[in-house]
Every structure is written in structure tokens, then in C-alpha cells.
Amino acid sequence: MLLNEKNYLKKVRPSNTVIVDIRFVFNQIVSMVEKEQIIVSNCFVDQKWTDSRLVWNPLEYKNVTWIRLPATSVWYPDTFLYNTADNAGFLLPHDSQNVIVSHNGTVFWPLPLAQLRTRCRMTIKHFPFDEQSCDMIFGSWSHTSSLIHYRFWEKIPELPQYTPNNEWRLLAVSQSIRQIDYPNWVEPDTFFEINFTILIVRKPLQAIYNTVVPALMLTTLTLVSFFIPFGQEMQIGISIMLAYSVFSLRLSEDVPSQSDSVHLISLYLTICMLFSLSAMTWFAVVNKLREKKRLPYWMRWLALDYISVIVCAQNMHRKAVRVAHQSSKTSSTNPSSPSVSVPLQPLLSPNPTESANHIYHERSSHLCRPSATSVRQSQDTSPSSPVWVRRPLIANPSTELNGSESKKMKNSFRQSKNTKDSSASKNQESLYAICIINRLVFLLFFLFVVVFNIHTWFFYSRALKTKLLDNATLWTCFDESRLTVVSCNETI
């Protein structure tokens, strides 16, 4: 009798203005398609309205106050999800679904669990500590506010059976309703928009473990490169740069690209790449200095006297001082003139004629003629054996004539030897100074890595402002650990 085609037309509104109460129950975050900026969620959308054509007297029907009718056999509002990501935006009943009708004409339509795909504009500037606010906007597709008037069933949204997500944590939900005027609509009227907003924050453990930890290991490997030979340093540096490039490409496939901002992990990887590039440049400079083996005096003085104390390298300073003392001691113990001796040669022979000829030959060979006493003594002692006499080179008349040239040769020999000792000492000091400066650069790089990582992953995340502080929105906060609604002050 209620659904008689003569008395009831399911395609016609029950009255001029139908008041529809709507309730949104958020159930689960299924997934977040970040590349396409789409959120997939499960939720219940319940609607209630009054149809005056479905009224009966319970006394006439054995005191029956509630009945179930097929949802497709009664009129229902054309509620549509405005920001849907596909063509399934209408909330349509199926043949197996029922509506519950009261004797006073109230129709209750509990829509079964619906999987909604909605567009969600993502802000990834603070990834992986990003906080996303996603809206689900409902409203009538063809009825204006004068024909269908929406209002909330409950003032506060409910989360009775929420299922936590592995990647996202639900912070709060809110609901609002407003009237929107569409200038291109044929009627001069407004539409109701019911906005359900969920505030979610990313759980950063997975992103940190998959991206930040390997990048931190590569940065540590760059620091270790300070203690290996130069050729291997460059090979490790090139491998590290390639690894950073792979991480950047892998990250760009999962995170949506935005031109208005660069997310935190991409900025972190870029700084790590610049850090490795700076280290490789420094390795090349140090290798060039080692090949040159000579630093300016002021640089050696600064490194050996002051920087060595800062980097705890006093042993290198002591070694450099010891080398300098040894060099000065060697130069001070050098003789003023080198000793030049003439090999021993026989002075006399048994034959006087040969002896005279030999004496003449020795005179020409920078040896002096022996005295008569020495000749007589040699004849008395051993007439048949020659006598060997060594004479200094300066006794030669020809040497006396060229005395100035001899002094110049002696001075040049002494200066060349002192110059060699001084050059070796400076080269050794330069090598010690290079080692000290290299240790200072290592400490600076190490401090940069420690401070940069602590600030990024401990202080930066806590300094971010949450949207819960927005007083313009009335949030209902949720605690996933207790699965209950809590005060937003506790969440903040």
C-alpha cells in the first residue's frame, strides 16, 4: 500500500524542501597514491530524511513501527562526492541494500562501507615529516539549497571503529557545511557543500630507514676516505655520487614532483652530494700539495704552531722541530773546507837519474821536491826501496796562483750542501703541515655532518607547526594508541 505506484512516485521529491541529515564515519586510510595525489579511504556515510508519503498508523498494522524496504524502491537524495578521483562519485544504493522506514515517515539509509577515492592536494615540503589535510566534499548534484537542505546528524564526527594505517597516523577530523554560489548554474540559487576533513601525519620511520640511513652511511664513507690513498679516494667518491643519484631517482618515483617547493629529503640528498663533491675537491688539492712538497712559511708556521694544538697533533709538531734541529746541527758540523789529498806516490828510486826524473814529474804533479836530508836518510835506511811522501795540494805553486778560484769552489760546495739540508727540512715540515691541515678539514667536515643531521632529524621535525593550531577550524582529535577521541591539547 505504501509503495503503490498511484500514491508513490520514487523519482519525485517528497516535498518542496527536503531536510537531509548526514553523518560521516571515517573508518580507515587504505592507501595514499602520492604520485597522483589521491587518497583511498573506507568510510560510512549515513543519511536520514522525512518522506511524508511513507506514513502509517502502527495501530492499524499490528503495532509495526519500523519496516525495511529495498533502497531502490524509494526516493533518495542525489548526494555526490564533488572531489572524486574517478567516475564513481554518486552515493547510489544497490538492489541488496535496504532502507529503514519509520511510521512517521523518517527514512534512514545506512550506506554500507564505501571505498572513496578523493583528490588530496599534498604539500611535501617537509617530507617525511609532512602533514596532509584531505577533504571529502559532498553535496547534491542537481538540487539547490532551496530544494534539499543538508545538515549534520551529529555535531561532532565519530570514529568508533577506526583501523590504523601503517604509514599514516590520523591526528584529527573536522566537519563543516557552507553554501556555495555557482555563477554558471541555470538557477539563481546556492548549493550546500558538506566538507569532511581529515588531518593525517606521515610516520617517518620507513622513509628514514630506506633513504636517510643509507645516505648517512655514504656520508660516513666520505669521512673515512680521508684516511686512504688518493687514487682510492677518488674511486670511492665517484661511487658515492652515483649512489646519491640512484637514491634521488628512486625518491622521485614515489613522491609527487612540485615546482613551488623541494621536499626535505631531496634537499638533504643534495647537501650530501655537495658534501661529497667538496671532499673530492679537497682530496685533489691535498694530492697537489703533496706532489709540490713545499708550503709557504706562514702556512707551515700556522699549521705547526697553532692548528696542531687544535686538532691534537702535537706529535707532528715535535717531529717537525726535531727535523729542524737535526738539519741545523748538520750544517753547523760541516768543515769550512773539504779535505783534498793526493794519492801516495814513490818519491825516490834506486837510480839517481830515474829519481831526478821522478822528482821532476812529481813537481809537475803538484808535489814538492823532497829535502836533501830526507833523501839521505832514505838512502841510509833502505837504498833499494822508494819512499812515499804525501804533500798538501796548497804547496803546489800552480794552486797558489789560483787561490781565489779555489775559495769560490769551497764556498759553493758548502752552500750547496747547506741548501740541500734546508730544502729537505722544509719539505718534511710541509708534509707535516699538510697532514695537520688535512686533519683540521676532516674535523670540520665531521662537525658539519653531526650538526646537520641532528638539526634535521631531531629539531627540525619538532619545530614544524601543525594545523591543529588553526583556530578557524573545530578539530576532533584522535589518539591511535588508545583508539579514542581526545582533547587536541594532548595531541599538540
Q: How would you sum up this structure, described in words?
A:
Among the domains are: 18-201, Neurotransmitter-gated ion-channel ligand-binding domain (Acetylcholine Binding Protein, Chain: A), CATH 2.70.170.10; 204-292, Neurotransmitter-gated ion-channel transmembrane domain (Methane Monooxygenase Hydroxylase, Chain G, domain 1), CATH 1.20.58; 345-389, no CATH class. The radius of gyration is 50 Å and the shape is rod-shaped. By secondary structure, it is an alpha+beta fold. The protein has ten helices and 15 strands. The strands form three sheets. Strands 1, 2, 3, 5, 6, 7 and 9 form a seven-stranded mixed sheet that branches. Residues 371-385, 412-422 have a biased composition (Polar residues). Belongs to the ligand-gated ion channel (TC 1.A.9) family. Keywords: Cell membrane, Ion channel, Ion transport, Membrane, Signal, Transmembrane, Transmembrane helix, Transport. Residues 326-347 have a biased composition (Low complexity).
